[in-house]
Amino acid sequence: MKVLIMAAGSVGGYFGSLLLNNNEVGFVARGNHLKNIKQNGLKIISKSTGNSTFEVNAFEIPPKNFKADLVIFSVKSYQNEGSIPIIKQALRSSTQILSIQNGIGSQEFLSNHFGVDHVIPGATYIDATKKSHGVIEEFGGNPKIILGGNYQQIEMINSIFENTKINYEISTDIQCDLWEKLIYISALSGISCLLRQDFESILSRQESKNLVISVLKESLSVAHSLNINISSDIVQKIITQFQKNSLNLISSMYEDLKAKKMTEYEVINGAVSRLGKQTGVLTPINDIITTSLQLHNQNL
Does the domain made of 175-298 have the CATH classification 1.10.1040.10? Predict the structure, then answer.
């Protein structure tokens, strides 16, 4: 099967590397990242799957003869519009697009461009970073993809992912799983960006830990207002998970903020804030985070 990785950042680069043994994989990249991959290969440093360097087919735009069976969509949300013409280059009539992008909204965005029958909703839990150009580090352990879809879509995913090292799970309620991930990252990413601190430090003080809990509760309240079937005990479960993994918790949105790059706040805390207003749920801390990061993006 042919798989297009859109694009070869920390998430796409890692999962794409796990598909190389059994599939023909193309990686979209650009600039010095693309240059280093072409010259030195794609280097993966992984707590879960070991360290390897792969000679891969990488390009800025897919060649005309590369038509994908599956596109794995993992760009930042502010890169969405620019990704559409690149994906179109690799489409055939049966191409499916698996979105594992952060936040809420990518399923609708992709469906508007390619049709709902060609989009597979998904989420991923992974701690990874682009360590340098051409080098991806996965450091959290046990990364996972959760996905939904119809029978034919799931059969395709099984045929591509089977006999690889990708840990994936077929969801029985993908909207619930997407919101659980949103609740998780609204606190991890949102409070990291608001306080400009690593998450271990945030959890070490009760005052800042209370902010984390408040964001979790706000996001959960919005989910409930939309009739998303999430148990209220998820707040305590996430806090327990945060405390257990505090040393490895790194927010990619906070890393972008520190690097003075664009942030994808609009599909994370911005989505909670916007949907809260639509449903009459108060989200004061998410609102503050949204305003702060909106100003950050506007000033770049």
Answer: yes
